[in-house]
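Good day; I would like, with your permission, to put a structural problem before you. A protein sequence and the structure tokens that stand for its backbone fold form the material at issue. I would ask you to consider whether the tokens describe a fold that such a sequence might reasonably adopt. I set the record out below, with my sincere thanks for your time.
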Amino acid sequence: MAFFSLPGTRRFEYKPMFYNEQDEKRRERHQRIEREVRSENGEQPDEAPNFIHFARKQRQKSSKRILIIFLALAAAYFFLQQRFLR
């Protein structure tokens, strides 16, 4: 009869990492060739430029929205000032 439970044993999982220079160069060549083939086919080479473009457009929209709100508030202020402060 156990009043409390002990944690089970944990398995030691060590995965050694080795640096293989030839494998790294082969991967880089493969990625470079893949990008060239995509660009020749007219596809977008990476996802990052799309994200950057999207973020830039969002900032521009936000700036325009703030400007429009500011102009509307300024127009309302001047309208009310002319109407009630005469």
Notes: Residues 21-84 form one domain. The chain is about 65% helix and 0% strand. The longest helix spans residues 48-84. The two ends are 91 Å apart (CA to CA).
